[in-house]
Amino acid sequence: MVSGVSVEAFWAATYLWDLANYAVPSVAIVAAFAAFGLPYYTGRNLPAVAALFALFGLSSLPLTYVLHFFFLDEMAALTWMLAGFFTWAFLSVTTNLMLQVRALTHSPTPYPYPCTPTSCFRYDSLPAWSTVSGALPVASTLA
Q1: 84 assigned to some structural domain
Q2: Residue 2 domain-assigned?
Q3: 80: CB partners within 8 A, 6+ apart
Q4: How far apart are CA 108 and CA 74, in angstroms?
Q5: Per-residue confidence (pLDDT) for residue 143, from 0 to 100
Q6: Are the CB atoms for 100 and 91 separated by under 8 Å?
Q7: Residue 16 belongs to a domain
């Protein structure tokens, strides 16, 4: 029992509350993209952008819930997870782009390494990487 309810009810209510809090800025951001008419993120690309925002919220919240059990202090958990998620997303995207550029410019074979970036580093299952790797193709196509 947590707060007088079952553990399942507590986590379900917490998840729905966090999703509602996440949905407000997400809808505002997608609406701002549409209002300003950014060519990469509007038109036929707008549903893909909206789906990326929705799926990021659906997947990142459970990951955060699981990881918070490794911390004793909530503020330490918040700080480390924000820093960790940002750093991991930045480094994984940068590494992937660098390896792709290297493969395209310096090698006659499609990929000069024994494995591709996703098979070596396995960051493709993390929410931040999945969102960025989904946004890059959307941004590379004009509506």
Answers
A1: yes
A2: no
A3: 71
A4: 51
A5: 45
A6: no
A7: yes
Given this model, what pLDDT does residue 27 score?
Answer: 95
Q: How many separate domains does the chain show?
A: 1
Q: Which residue in 81, 88, 22, 18 sits closest to 53, CA to CA? A: 22
Q: Which residues contact 23 (CB under 8 A, 6 or more apart)?
A: 57
Domain residues for the domain of 116 are: 7-139
For 25-61, the pLDDT digits (tens) are 999 999 998 999 888 888 888 898 899 899 989 988 8
- Residue 115 domain-assigned (yes or no): yes
Q: Indicate the pTM of the whole model.
A: 0.71
Side-chain-facing half-sphere of 19: CA atoms under 13 Å: 12
Query: Between 16 and 60, where is the model more confident?
Result: 16
**Token pair 């309810």: residue:** 5
